[in-house]
Design a protein that fits this description.
About 20% of the residues lie in helices and about 20% in strands. The termini are far apart. The longest helix is centred in the N-terminal third of the chain and has 20 residues. The chain has a single domain, classed as Mannose-Binding Protein A, Chain A (Roll). It is built from four helices and ten strands.
Length: about 200
Amino acid sequence: MAHAPFVRDHNRLLMLLVLMWGAGCGDNQPDDTDVHCLRTWGLRDTATDLCWQDPPEARNLDWQQATAYCDELTAGAATDWRLPDIDELVSLLRGCDDGVIQSSGTASSCAMVPAECAVVDTCVDHVSCGECEYYQGPALDGCYWMSGLTGACTNVYWSASTDGGNGVNPWFANFGNGGVGGHGPPSSVFLVRCVRGGVR
């Protein structure tokens, strides 16, 4: 009985440490509301609150394969992964703004309005989405995405969005040069990085 106060205080201390650890998550880290976006499975973008698969799938896939891959992915005990839409994919761009390399790794101001587009060339603001020099971005290997992400940027990444003009050719982002495009036929083989969270 003499040890009871010590046990209670010890348990309170342990609970306090657990709470402090959960509250101490920093930028691009999960918080206690998303325990599945752990560094071993994904990386959380605090600007958008999206959880990105990390590392991404290493294989190049066609668009249907990429969509199916994300829909069927289970990682970090989460099963709600999906192929990102073009706005979500563009939100990952860092260090290339208006065709100018930004060493600070600032977010791109690239503007997309896929829902209202009639033809592919009007979907993207070509001024704000200007391409930068290849492999000069702020992340590992010069990729133009947020620091902390891993994976290859030697090919473009698929999005779930299709060109509003024909509804066939999907949009993609090139993290090797910060560019965005939408002329790729679905049979092309590109890279894929799945996403969780947000409202589609």
